[in-house]
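Because discrete structure vocabularies remain unfamiliar, we turn briefly to a single example record, giving the amino acid sequence and backbone structure tokens:
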Amino acid sequence: MKVFQWDVNLKIRLLGEGMFHLLYWMYFPFVAIYFSSQLGNSVAGLLMTIPPLVSLIGSLIGGSLADHFGRRPVMLMGSSIQGVMFIMFALSFSPWVDYLAFIGISIGGAIYRPPSAAMVADLVPERDRRQVFATFSTANNIGAVLGPALGAIFFFQYRSELLWTCSFILLTYTVVIYFIVNETKLDMQENPKIGEILNNQWGDYRTILRDKIFALYIAAGVFAIVTIMQLDLYLPYYVINYVPSQPFLNFSFTSESIFGWMLGLNGLLFVLFILPVTKWLKNWRERDVFILSSFLSGVGMFALGLNTNIWYLFIVTIMFTFGEIVRSPVMESFVSHYAPPESVGKYMAANSLQFTIGRFLAPITLFLSTWLSPIMILLLLLLSSLISIFLYLRVFIIFR
């Protein structure tokens, strides 16, 4: 399904979300550094554990509201909150107000995502959803590649201007949603009461998680995410501490620069290959794609510990990056056709549980690194991926 064939709702979102993600990656990687410099490492480390939990709550609320009020009003709510919080961030003269604004941005983004994903399910035939989700991932990851390089300049030297630009883009995008984007959920409840919805949503989510297939799917995703998240956790620790400086293309590369090149290669591969890979695997069963993803991620991470040559490390980077690439568009595609039509928003929101729990568990590798050798840590990551494969097999044995 070509972009020019898309519904106008999706075209507008692709442009708006692509622009925002570029700006997002210009500030997000440096927020922890900023709070550490203002509040100290220990306080900042504690504070940075809160946004994922807040985002989970925001995502669950966004999913419930989207199924009752429709996709468009909840997207408007999420983007408006983010725009206002960026203004608060730009005007602030206190790191504590900055932090509250950052939490607000996280909540707004979390509320926005479930109705955004559900809108794709409303508008796109099931056979084309992987390709559409992959296109959105490509736009988002272009920002992830370019954003940090630009943010290294703008965040520290022109932070106020960057934050005002983010607020302007988001508020402009909110106006565009209001005037141009159409509602796609047509079977909404009449005169829903927000208080009643929020009171009932926890029971709804408990019911979702009692769904054995979906609970197994979330568990499998958690073990997969624990391995994938090491790109920002154990990988830099391992490369910087255990990979020696060495020559590369007539230059001398330090451990830090080797890690930077690995990270850049990861982002570049994601941008260049997510669309063609999604097309190549279009006819693969979702089970096989999930298993391939976990296998490549786990084996790729374990292989890190077998050699420190820079060329070898680049090859391994390609392996575990493709593990992430093949997985990305299939997750939302699976949930969009598995979920009952009246609960797509809730299921999309509950789908974020695997990321929240995975992010919470993933730092255990750094904790264990005090007592275990690198090869043992990497072996545990391989084991996590194998557990993920086993659980995915169970999911698709039950769900046929």
Summary: The CA atoms of residues 91 and 160 lie 8 Å apart. The two ends are 26 Å apart (CA to CA).
